[in-house]
Amino acid sequence: MTSSRLSDDRGSTLPIYIWLTAILLFAAFAFFAFAQAASARNGAQSAADAAALAAAQSERDELMDGLGQAIGGDDDWLGWLKGQGAPGAGAQAAADQLAAENDAEVVSLHAGPSANGFPGYKVAVRTLYTVGDTIIPGTETKHAKAQATAVIQPRCAIPVDADFKKPIQLDCDGAPLEIDPTHFDLEDLPDASALFSVHLAD
Fold this sequence. Notes:
Layout: H1 3-70, H2 78-81, H3 91-101, E1 104-113, E2 119-130, E3 143-154, E4 156-157, E5 168-172, E6 175-179, H4 192-195, E7 196-200
Antiparallel strand pairs: 1-2, 2-3, 3-7, 4-5, 5-6
């Protein structure tokens, strides 16, 4: 084989190497762009989950306050045990705080019953940071968004013949609880988590 033939072979393979290298570099940058976008989406979802749970937990605290004030009064306080109190005034602030701690902001917050009928909050957030510079145009100004819904689920089964003016024996997920409205003290109530669970909707 002559030296000129070897030179021709090397000359013909060089463009192929350049082409393959360019493809590999593009694939690497594209993978990096998708990884950045996925990371931003995960961050947004974590912020949405935290904000929704914070709003629901704030609502649960206010349900406990309302329950404590209602027991022994003239109004039927059993509705509070079912989570039927008015939407909490502190839910927005709680959601805003947890979203901010996760580098995001609350775009919308809605209180209302979930698909299973339990009270809850649906929160939408947007990250304060962008996806960043990538080979995909526009990502440098793109913010990740996510939604989450948290529900407040009552734990206590109320007897069908319960009279809110008389002592009531409740079953709260297997734990007995007696509330006597005629001799009631706020310290008689257990922790909020014993009466209501707060969790993300499926």
